[in-house]
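Researcher: Quick one. three chains, 845 residues in total.
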Amino acid sequence: MSTAPVSPSAAALRASFGDAIERVLVSCGDTIVYVSRARAHDALAWLRDTPGQDFNYLTDITAVDYRDPERPLEVVYQLRSLARRADLRVKIALDKRQPLEVATVYDLWKGADWLEREVYDMFGIRFAGHPDLRRLLMWETYAEGYPLRKDFPLRGHFSRSEQTRQALAANPEAHYSLEELSIAEAFAELPKDMQERLARGERGFIR
Amino acid sequence: MGLINPATASESGETTVVSEMSPNWVTTRLDFLTNWARSNSLWPMPFGTACCAIEYMATAASRFDIARFGMERQSFSPRQADVFICAGRVPFKLAPVLRRIWDQMPQPKWCISMGACASSGGIFDNYSMVQGIDTIVPVDIYVPGCPPRPEGLMYGILLLQKKIRGESIVDEQLRQEQLVGPDGLFRPAARVDELSEPFGNSVHQTRSSS
Amino acid sequence: MSLRTVELALATPGLDEPGKPTRIPLGVAEPPGAHFDEDFGAEHMLVNLGPQHPATHGVLRLVVELEGETVKRVIPHIGYLHSGFEKLGEYRHYNQIIPLTDRTDYLSPMANNVALALAVEKLMGIEVTERCRVLRVIACELSRIISHLVWLGTTGIDLGAFTPFLWSFQERERVYNLQEAWTGARLTTSLTRVGGMMADIPDGWDQALREFTRTFPSTLDEVDTMFTRNAIWIGRTQGVGALSREEAINYSLSGPMLRASGVDYDVRKDRPYLGYEDYDFDVPVGEHGDVYDRYRVRLEEMYQSNRILEQALDKLRPGPINVDDPRVVLPPKGRAMSDMEAMIYHFKQVMEGVKPPAGEAYLGVENPKGELGYYFVSDGTAKPVRWRIRPPSFINLASLPKMCEGALLSDVIAINASVDIVMGEIDR
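Model:
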């Protein structure tokens, strides 16, 4: 696929960010730019705000876990410039041995809100600065792990009866009730062991 | 001579007696009247989740029209419903909601599991899907299909009506609530695992790369 | 809101004795009346809508924090239909993923099938035949019509009008007849395959479709008469849930939601696929971005889809529907039985499946709900490393809290209806 043209944004990024642009490649006609984790937020902001780039539309955020366990996890941003009718894919490679954390782009595009929550839910990648990073598709106290990781088996870790039992005990009315909002607002003042028990998912009721 | 539970009659050779009282002429007349009334005015509680819900809506629309079975009044409040129609796949996150709505329905109540996913998990044999709602609630009628045609659902409703007509007021166990047990499960854990075992193609389609 | 003292027993309620649920006492932190200086009624009320609710269009849970009848905050909870599609896709061959796509957006299954086939064909660099392209356009536009018809019927019910629901489902039945005649299934069509289609249209199908396109606009005219200048409809939809142009772009909205806010972006026009650049159709663009504009945009889109269908029928020419590429399409049986090379291709395809080269591709199409994108990462084997569905309704729904700020409770229902969600796609 190397005969397809590389997007001019790649060269412009290289000019502005130098070594932070780790790799540029083209696959099936799409240009993919690998950016280092430290400068990714700056690069994405630059892509949005620079006249001539104008990537004002965030199409998608997702992540990829490869079958080879040595390969890093990749966070994938699909960007689009509506005015210039151009697409760009920006990726951040995350070494699995390091903590999986990148900066949020919620401040750049509001559409990143749920997209990043879903990536956190499915892959366990944290987005620093996200206003509300909770699980989105699984229930908040889901204990089996991060489903789209390759080390997570298709049917989950627990047995079916255990999954059923945990599901039936989940008590969805606790999220949100006035009880939980009160608990959430009082969280910092609660004693340490109570915070830990809440974090583990035990739910109580106000006496 | 009482009423024998045919479901357990053949397992061990012994028969369980579900009622000491024999049905007689009065009870059978009452049965006929009660069952006729119940079967012809089943108010459904449409627990529609996915694609089967769309076929359910098509069944309720003018071409197939379940109103002629007495199911005109869709009861979205479980308190006023008779039949719990689970139309669509049920993930584990939805399981406590389903159980709670089932518990909220007053007796007499029946359950139709519409579609392959509600009956057995369907094509979704994975971490997030309940492998058949009969692991959570007692099911009366299973309607196969993905999604079942409206005619299929109507056949299931007719079967349910036939089942209701076969009920008897002397059967004490029939209208007993079956609750979630103290271990947090509706069926014994071994039975849940057994019901959830993969079958068919699902047994082979678990390799991620070829 | 004053902080209440929270004493937690932290016990999961269970059963006291066999068969009797624990009675949980309804307690309050302090006895009522203890704080006379608190404003009476300053507490906001939390109303829980769903996940089982007739007006949430699927298993969506909305927790609405109300001050009186005005919405202070809406917290949507999704995931009640999470079926692990993307995980399942990693364990399926590319053609086996097509039946999965029927079940994500189950209101417009053929459009998803087409989108998936296009995405894999982009990954493999395959161009389909002309007849296949026209048939796929027909499939996409029929899907647009049936999806918008569901939206129309259910939005009507939400806002109090029951009859258009029956009209729209009657029209849907006519399209279901067409779908069933073509694919064998009313809803889960699995229409396409990589490199072609599952089957060609049967004899007489194009006449039946032409008959449909001839009479369908009259139903739309009836709906138009019912709603467009109706005082109740206008009162409930105009000015409700408005999003500005900049907000719509920033929230990554797509489809009718984006166009109602005045952004002229339609994937069929901006990034044409399947030969859409050769069809003559208009894209309705709204102005205010409120519920009324979204209604007008979707209604007009149905008229335009009808127009495209008529043109596609005129363009339909005899020819093959599957591309002649042994990597993806099984050779004809006669050749497979007599020619060694064809037999080997047949064997490899059946035993190993379609194998795209290593690489990745993203393809967006204009689905009725918005831009549906499929992102595939392949490592050269028959099963994808990653199958990502870029769900339009998921991203559109994320703007619901913004749209509901300051609205009334009944407006929340109208706004939710205008987003045109399908939970199968949102939760995947």
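Residues 35-196 of chain B form a domain with the Rossmann fold fold (CATH 3.40.50.12280).
Researcher: Thanks, that's what I needed.
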